[in-house]
Each structure stands twice: as C-alpha cells, then as structure tokens.
Amino acid sequence: YLPIEAVRRTMTAVLALAAPGSRLIATYTVSRDLMDGDSREFDDLAREASKASGEPHVTFLAPKEMETIARQAGWPTVNSVNPSSFAPWFAHRGDGLVPASYEWLLVADT
Prior knowledge:
Blueprint: H1 4-17, E1 23-29, H2 37-52, H3 63-72, E2 77-81, H4 87-90, E3 103-109
Antiparallel strand pairs: 1-3, 2-3
C-alpha cells in the first residue's frame, strides 16, 4: 500500500543497514493481471478496507518492476518468487487450499 517512492527509500534504507551476506525477503502486491480469481476478489476487499482506514493501496507491481526497484536501490542479487511455486506443498491438502497469487515474494541478497 506504500507509494512507489516510499518503497524505493525503504529498499535503500534496509540495504544501508544490511551486513554482508544478508538476505531480505519481502512481499509485494502484484498487478491484477497476475492474480487468480480468488486473489482478485481478495484484492477488491483489501482495497476497500485500506481505503476506508485512510491508507489506500497505491502500488501494484509486476515482478520485473519490483526487481528493478531493488536493483536500483543497490541490491546486487534479486529474484521474485511466484507463489504458485509453493503448490507442491499444498498438493495433499484435503481442504483445497492453494497458494494465493495476490502477493509475490522478493528475495534480495547483499
């Protein structure tokens, strides 16, 4: 829900505090075209709730966009993780729960 410039500043500030060999793992909300139907429904609810609380979601990123922000902040090694890659861990659940595509992970190493 942070403005893009706040995301940039945060990535830079965290790197300034990171020791060599550190790893940052962060989530970010992806653009709706990367969300499945359930995640788009959740996105609608989350946008309404955050707007009502006075902190509307304003930043939605494609993985390459988030990776570019991290690299521009100085993180040398950056990768996005699609939550669908977690599907094997959910495969034997009897309740049908699957990973949501609303947020992806960013993994950045110093």
